[in-house]
Amino acid sequence: MKLNLKALALTSGILWGLTVFLMTLVALWRGAGDHLALLRGFYIGYQVSYVGSLIGLVYGFVDGLVCGALFAWLYNCFAKEP
């Protein structure tokens, strides 16, 4: 069985974007977030703030989209047809 590249890429993008967004908001509400500040090394402009959560949402969506598409493509390359 082969994976649908577009569906997996879009699903991965949405899930990872929302995860970064919600993790940032929860860290703001709890007064924590020092560990999330490490994302600045990967996502330029990201910070643990309300604006940073939106920036993380966009970066997370793009990151998840690319990684999901790459995973589906590699899986389909190595998957055997029945």
Description:
With 82 residues, the chain is mainly α. The protein has one domain. It is 67% helix and 0% strand. The chain is built from two helices and no strands. It is elongated, with a radius of gyration of 15 Å.
Summarize the structure.
The protein is built from two helices and no strands.
- How many domains would you count in the coordinates? 1
Structural class by sheet pairing and helices: mainly alpha
Could you tell me the radius of gyration in angstroms? 15 Å
Low-confidence runs of at least 5 consecutive residues: none
Question: Tags for this entry?
Answer:
mainly alpha, about 0% strand, about 80 residues, about 65% helix
Which SSEs are present, and which pair or pack?
Elements lengths: L4 H26 L19 H29 L4
Helix pairs in contact: 1-2
